[in-house]
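Write out the bound-state structure for 2-phosphoglycolic acid.
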Amino acid sequence: MDIITTTSYEALSITAANYIIEKLNNNPSAVLGMATGGTPTKMYEFLIKDRIQNNTSYQNVTTFNLDEYVNLAKNDANSYFSYMNKHLFTHIDITKQNVFIPDGLAENLEDECKRYEQLLQDKGPVDVQILGLGENGHIGFNEPGTPFTSRTHVVELTESTRQANARFFPSLEDVPTHAITMGIASIMNAKEIILLVSGKNKADAFERLLHGKISEDFPASILKNHPCVKIIADRSVLEQSSIIA
Ligand code: PGA
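---
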């Protein structure tokens, strides 16, 4: 794992955006794995800025999102469908047919998981997968204890994840209890992975990632087995951990 440390969240976001832009310049038909949550929002802002300034095209880019809540309407402000439209897709020239997000409203969720996994196989592999890090070490919505062999599946969200995400909802009760997520094996299939780590609340998870052993109790630890992972961490994480910025 390569570790890139940055002086600020802004710098983390520019570093990640520039990495993606360079990939797109080299391969305009790249397959990108998208993450949601608080951490990548500024990276998306920089991608939009670059789109305006340099006209980088996404017309032939394919995207796969990591996850989606179960039972939230697509147009619900908290669905990841809405998140992606708001933070990126409505600002770039992406082709709608090339955008893939699990359907958390599918009648048969198991079939939806199979369909999504098949799409990943057919249109993948993902060239660059963006990931955030959960406070409990989750990647996507793969909570501690998820088998490393898992493929796209339905998960019951842990209390800590629901609490961490409650800040986006009117109340904790409004946070969905289930989600569809790409599995750990699905994520590990990406050619390259960029893990974004920002905020004091991630310091413990960051330390465990660097110094802990590889274990299903801490899903992100599997990244140590991937041949091409870049961790971009900002000062707020480093100052809280024993790793010096
Ligand atoms: P965050 O979430 O970016 O909102 O902190 C990361 C995650 O839980 O994967």
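---
DSSP finds eight helices and ten strands in the chain.
The chain has one domain: 2-199+209-214.
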